[in-house]
Structure formats: C-alpha cells, structure tokens
Design brief:
It is built from three helices and no strands. It is an all-alpha fold. The N and C termini lie far apart (42 Å).
Length: 62
C-alpha cells in the first residue's frame, strides 16, 4: 500500500513544473474522493445501472 507521502510525490512528478498550489490541492482532493468511493464500493457494494436509472430517471432526458 502506498503511503500518503509516496502518493503526493508521485502526483508532483506528474504535474507540470508551473502548477500552482491550488492545482496540487485540487488533484489531491480528487484522488481522495476517488479512493473513498472505491473503498465505499468495496465495503457496501454497488448498485446496478437499472437501479440508478430508476432513481435518477426523472433528472435525465432520453
């Protein structure tokens, strides 16, 4: 498992040299949200596309 420090170092290597602190914060935020979502999916499971369509069908257009 990667440590937080290793993940930040990896991110910094991928970003351009002229990125801002806000750019770094944004990317860290997105990484954290994705990791939480993956963890939640592993713990709680996922739902089918059919159930998603039923729940959110009123907001989508076909």
């Amino acid at each position: 498992m990667n440590t937080a420090k290793n993940e930040v170092q990896s991110l910094l290597k991928k970003l351009p040299d002229d990125c801002t602190i806000e750019d770094i914060q944004y990317h860290l935020y997105v990484i954290e949200k994705v990791q939480r979502g993956i963890g939640r999916a592993k713990e709680e499971g996922t739902i089918s596309q059919e159930k998603v369509d039923k729940r959110f069908g009123k907001w989508t257009t076909k």
